[in-house]
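Class prep. Protein, please:
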Amino acid sequence: MPALPVPDIREYSVENLRRYTTAGAGRWITAHVLQYWWFLLLLVLTAVINNAAYGTVPLFIGRGFDLVSRHGWSTPDLARIALVVALAAVTQGVTGLLRNFSVEFLAHKIERDAREEMYTALLGKSQSFHAAQRTGDIMARATNDMRALNLLFSPGLMLIIDSSLALLIPLAMILMIDIALWPVPILFTALLAITVHNYNRRLKPLSIAQRNEFGAMNAVLADAIGGIEVVKSAVQERYELDRFTGRARAFRDYFVRQGAVQALYWPMLAFALCWAAALFHGLWLWRAGTISLGEVVSFMGLFATFRFTTFISIFSFNLVQLGLASADRIIALIRPSPGMDQNPRGRRARIRGKVELREASFSFALPEHGDPPVLQDVSFTIEPGETVAIVGRTGSGKSTLTRLVNRIFEVSSGSVLIDGVDVREWDLESLRGQISTIEQDVFLFSLSIRDNIAFGRPDASEAEIIAAAQQAQAHEFIMSFREGYDTMIGERGVTLSGGQKQRLAIARAFLTDPRILILDDSTSAIDSRTEDEIQQAMDRIAARRTTILITHRLSQIRRADRIVLLHRGRILDTGPHEELLQRSEDYRRIFAHACVGCRESF
């Protein structure tokens, strides 16, 4: 039974964005080209005129030979032939400029559209999709593969059109001279077609493997740079160098194999032999009185234009194969994949804050793989304005559970409801726009401090940004920088301490004024005094919204209205702190472990 097509669903989309078929590289490229069909038409038209003008030159040079070889030729007749040759040269120059302009415009337009299409598609992919990708490989597709797609058109497409016309137009002109001259050109054309077909057949798998190997090499480089602190701390520079060198050598080997295929490309030898045969055949026909000497000159001049087609075919088809391989890699990211729908017609309303999980289960792997689910039949309810702490050992599924609430992950079975409505029936933008998550591993963009705080609300005023920073106890350290709120943050916030990054993330969450606040060990890198100050601000904010708390800090656990105890993806117990201490042995063990060195007692 054939596989059903994957529905084109995505978490994010741009209104009126043109979508192209992703059934294959050829059809995808054709769909892009047809959007700018007038430039393609201009390209073909100017290429036809250009090659016709180029073929006119040897044709009229031959007529000039015939003219001067006759008695009684006149200078005006020769001048007219020279004028035609000059006009042909001018025409060739003008149409060449128009051809180059049209193909460059076409190439850059398609590259721009493909970039936007790929970036929009990536923004719309699910978190599960992104978790399976390697950043370096995606960057290789967004840069080098996009560049290869551009080169497919300019000069690849232009050279293929030019070389094809440089073969077909001279063939037609040779027929105009005398049909008896056709045998050798036809033989050469057949040999060239067979060789090019065989060349492309052998080159295609090498091109695909080469682009994939480049992506793998780029991924290794990105891993090493992203984890450079770990590499240096573990003194593993040699290991990373060997790993990268291995990939670089594999990438080089594909170039060597590609060069071997090109070395066996023998049409230039075939052209030389056929050119000699054409000369013999033309002179033989002249000696037999079938054609004139000028027609022999025209014939050999037209046959010589085949050399361009023969020589450039290696280069042009190499660019085309690399471009097609790159297009395959690009559309692999664009192609619809299983995920969640943005549901733009879904519910858009102000969230009151009721959260309900009904027998919710989640697994990263497919059930047939045999891996146990991360969450199994989880059911509980959080009332609006309630603060609930999720407690459990590492790996019990606490963070995964919170990601079901804002629909970063989709439940495998069961349901998650916000205000009594399944999250799948909410407009995804409206849902996530009213839920803020502060995680232990804070991500900051390579932007200014101001832009990072206002990331969720780009229209926020300066006063609102400062107020959010003050609530998060971040204003003081921000103002200690020379540029204040305009201070640029290094990639992933490497120029800040862990506590500073967490306070900026808290300020970012405060500014969005969420209806549901998720705190995933959000104060782990903050000292106790600063935590107390931030906690007071959080208490004021939490009083007006639903708060889901993941923490190992006893002070925060005891602030919760209710605690949910997770173990291996299942709920063991729920209730207030004091009740769980009395009736749950598992909770007492977790609490006792967290309480080592503190003054708490049971």
User: Anything to note?
Assistant: The CA atoms of residues 24 and 328 lie 7 Å apart. The longest strand covers residues 355-362.
